[in-house]
Amino acid sequence: MSQDIYPVPAGFAAGARIDASGYEAAYRRSLEDPAGFWAEAGRRLDWITPYSPDAVKDVSFGGPGAASGDVHIRWFHDGTLNVAANCLDRHLGPRGDKVAILWEGDNPADSRAITYRQLHAEVSRFANALLALGVQKGDRVTIYLPMIPEAAVAMLACARIGAIHSIVFGGFSPDSLAGRIVDCGSKIVITADEGLRAGKTVPLKANTDKALDQAPGVETVVVVRRTGGKIGFQEGRDHWYHDLIAKADPVNEPAPQNAEDPLFILYTSGSTGKPKGVLHTTGGYLVYAAMTHEYVFDVRDDDIYWCTADVGWVTGHSYIVYGPLANGATTLMFEGVPTYPDASRFWQVIDKYGVTIFYTAPTAIRSLMREGEALVKTTSRASLRLLGSVGEPINPEAWAWYHKVVGDERCPIVDTWWQTETGGILITPLPGAIALKPGSATLPFFGIAPQVVDAEGKVLEGATEGNLVIADSWPGQMRSVYGDHERFVQTYFSTYPGKYFTGDGCRRDEDGYYWITGRVDDVINVSGHRMGTAEVESALVAHPKVAEAAVVGYPHDLKGQGIYAYVTLNAGEDPTDALKKDLVAWVRREIGPIASPDLIQFAPGLPKTRSGKIMRRILRKIAENEFGALGDTSTLADPGVVTDLIENRQNR
Ligand code: ATP
Ligand code: MG
């Protein structure tokens, strides 16, 4: 992997919120005295009843032979607070007229700027509307909305009254929506008539109607009018959002919640199997989301911050809505896609609003890189000062393009490793403190105790490679799988008893930097050499003709496992046998003979989750010739891709 080091730029070092020695000191303290450290950090929020010093941390990860009841995680557990009050009410004095949400529609002509005062007013009204509809504390509220400000309003209104939201990404089908409604037993769904993506409508209300045939427990549907398209409307069950808002009392007192009352349920993206209903609670989650947002993105009062995720994913929860609003930041919300009207849309939006901090995913970077740099260079991007990446390992090639072409070599890149389960970022550079290495998420955030273990759970020291576990809790950690604590314990605490197992593999280098090598389930074992998928894929993507690559293992008579590589070429490149040979030679040269692909299949597209992650388990089944056992494919973005891959499978 790349050995380049990018030191902290002088500008960042000068204005740093925390520098290298400050990071080391704070990190050390956070591990030596977690309760003391987090007691202090928790004061960034307004508490209705302050937590007592001995209630800051109450955690057991169980241990060998522990019963499931032995795993419990509580933070700040005698404190009470309200998340919406922390994201809105407390900002009204100092920044009531500051823009809270900048909204950019799918159509570049559509935009809105909503101040903290306006957002507070709308959330208060909608909270009262939910109460009037009979929603009570602890009830689950399913939100199936496009990326419009009403999505944030709905989240915050739930938080204000203590209802638990469960957001389902607007790209999911009626079946997937129904499954998630039934799993958490919600009686109310908030949706829109239609969504808009790349100029096309998405039939959200029609999907909801279909889903409700399989989810008869739903009594109430709230519909936001987005496009004005024709929809079915069931009197008594369905309500227009704007009617409810118009009728609602404008004053709503935020209801005190215990720090451990549930805030939301969110299903994981389903890269490895059936999604899990991840449960997050109130106090610890918000402390952690707000603190990481401030430190990782170096957020200042005059920043225009843009995270391109959808609120249907955890990144949208923590880093579009809760973290930024708790910090009183201006957060940009984008309804559209990176390639509409054309592939310069991201850069156009950055110039339009003077975006200073930009946070996106490797899948988006790779797809825009494929379009070439000319489109990027039609824009200025001079306002940018910091870039971020999340969702998958970022290949050094894509990192370099992001740094050079998008950031004009001026902006540090924070490569943030985390999961739906972790609530916030765990391993990441702090831009004023930590030098960067392309492809490495670098070092742990405060309070995070990563360990690298071998298959038996032995802790490996120094520069090494193995499975990534976290030895102790942090406030943003998930508390349970909704309705199934046993599954929570089994999934995360049984592989290495007493430790949180991330499911990811990683390498730690001689500087203590962490490199996520991919999912442990995806590790390939060639002639006794264990290899992460990220390294081989990065080598392939570094080839000038390759846009994207995914590698998996398949049974091989001599080596145990062989390497099967699916390769997507740059626009206009020819898929020839000569190129296959060239790619094999290329990987041999980049990594070594052990990593040379045995079979290469050119693929016009790869199977991805709706959040853009490559689903290697499906590719593995295809490589193994097991087309009948593809498993849960409900989270696939484009099932058509799979048919093409099966038809063009390479034979041994
Ligand atoms: P499921 O758990 O249902 O299989 P998922 O793991 O894709 O789905 P998420 O919680 O959205 O669901 O994704 C977390 C995973 O994404 C991490 O475990 C890791 O594999 C990957 N990931 C996220 N950020 C990074 C990063 N910066 N570098 C490397 N990998 C990352
Ligand atoms: Mg996962």
UniProtKB/TrEMBL annotation:
Pfam families: ACAS_N (PF16177), AMP-binding (PF00501), AMP-binding_C (PF13193). It comes from the Bacteria. Its EC number is 6.2.1.1. It catalyses: acetate + ATP + CoA = acetyl-CoA + AMP + diphosphate. CoA binds at residues 197-200, 315, 527, 588. It is an enzyme of class 6 (ligase). Keywords: Acetylation, ATP-binding, Ligase, Magnesium, Metal-binding, Nucleotide-binding. Belongs to the ATP-dependent AMP-binding enzyme family. Catalyzes the conversion of acetate into acetyl-CoA (AcCoA), an essential intermediate at the junction of anabolic and catabolic pathways. AcsA undergoes a two-step reaction. In the first half reaction, AcsA combines acetate with ATP to form acetyl-adenylate (AcAMP) intermediate. In the second half reaction, it can then transfer the acetyl group from AcAMP to the sulfhydryl group of CoA, forming the product AcCoA. This is Acetyl-coenzyme A synthetase. It comes from Zavarzinia compransoris. The gene is acs.
